[in-house]
Design goal:
By secondary structure, this protein is α+β, with helices and mostly antiparallel strands. The chain has two domains: 156 residues, no CATH class; 95 residues, 2-Layer Sandwich (Alpha-Beta Plaits), CATH 3.30.70. The strands form two sheets. Strands 3, 4, 5, 6 and 7 form a five-stranded antiparallel beta sheet that branches. Strands 1-2 form a two-stranded antiparallel ribbon. Strand 1 and strand 2 form a beta hairpin. The protein is elongated. The chain starts with a helix and ends in a 5-residue tail after the last strand. Its main location: membrane. It is found in: Cell membrane. Keywords: Cell membrane, Membrane, Transmembrane, Transmembrane helix. It is a multi-pass membrane protein.
């Protein structure tokens, strides 16, 4: 085949990698990557259904182009062309790192988004498998994703060596000597391990009653208020702890928030 014959070839030629098989491979990549993206979307992660679907289909399309897109060029008379489909695959893996890196956040020595970044990487791999004519491997990778992301946390929570549930206890209190220490002691007595303490350094001052005054029988002074966030780990319910702290003198407000795995 010469260049003139190549130019005259039909645009929609099913024999040049545009047949039913190739469209089916793209469809399978879309389906599998969408399943993974839907799971991430329901978990309210930064990369959801649309991101994973586009990564899966895009990776599959790159593989299709790598395998079928340059076949006609290799048949040109007088042109020595050596095809290496693995080059495009290697560039896909390198390029997906930019998306994965943008999903990882570091805040106060806590890393978040590692699991979602790894999921993007896996979605790219299953898209490449579908585009490379290996849809069963792509299906197997999808099943492995759900096994690891949904099944492994259940197993680890049942293991005795792994800490139980994680909570963040948000407190606002009047600063007085020994109150924070008593709060930490109570958390320990309730069976929780304090893994992190973050005290709001900008304590506010509010006017409070302190005693008799010449004008209206009351003396008004300044009382400082502070906020603290305690990261707790334990296997029991934290609600009794909240109820007891609410009744303490000097404690102005108590909030509780469940914390999931920070690497997801």
């Amino acid at each position: 085949m010469d260049i003139a014959q190549l130019s005259a070839a039909p645009l929609f030629d099913p024999g040049r990698g545009q047949g039913v098989r190739q469209f089916a491979e793209l469809g399978i990549a879309l389906l599998l990557s969408s399943l993974i993206g839907l799971e991430r979307e329901l978990q309210q992660k930064s990369a959801g259904l649309r991101t994973h679907a586009l990564v899966g289909v895009g990776s599959a399309l790159f593989m299709e182009v790598s395998i079928h897109g340059f076949g006609a060029v290799s048949g040109l008379v007088g042109v020595d062309v050596r095809q290496d489909p693995s080059r495009v695959a290697a560039q896909i893996v390198s390029g997906i790192g930019f998306i994965g890196g943008g999903l990882i956040f570091v805040r106060r020595d806590a890393v978040r988004g590692l699991t979602t970044a790894a999921t993007i990487w896996l979605t790219c791999a299953l898209g490449m498998a579908c585009g490379g004519g290996l849809p069963l491997l792509g299906l197997a990778a999808t099943l492995v994703h759900f096994l690891v992301v949904r099944g492994f946390p259940v197993v680890t929570r049942r293991m005795a060596m792994v800490p139980g549930d994680r909570f963040e206890l948000h407190l606002s209190y009047r600063t007085r000597r020994g109150l924070l220490g008593r709060i930490l002691e109570l958390c320990t007595k309730k069976g929780f391990r304090v893994t992190d303490v973050h005290v709001d350094a900008e304590a506010t001052e509010k006017t409070a009653e302190k005693g008799p005054d010449k004008a209206d029988g009351r003396e008004r002074g300044k009382v400082k208020e502070a906020g603290v966030v305690l990261s707790l780990e334990g296997k029991g319910s934290a609600y009794p702890l909240v109820e007891e702290l609410t009744d303490w003198e000097g404690v102005l407000g108590v909030g509780l928030r469940s914390v999931r795995d920070s690497t997801e």
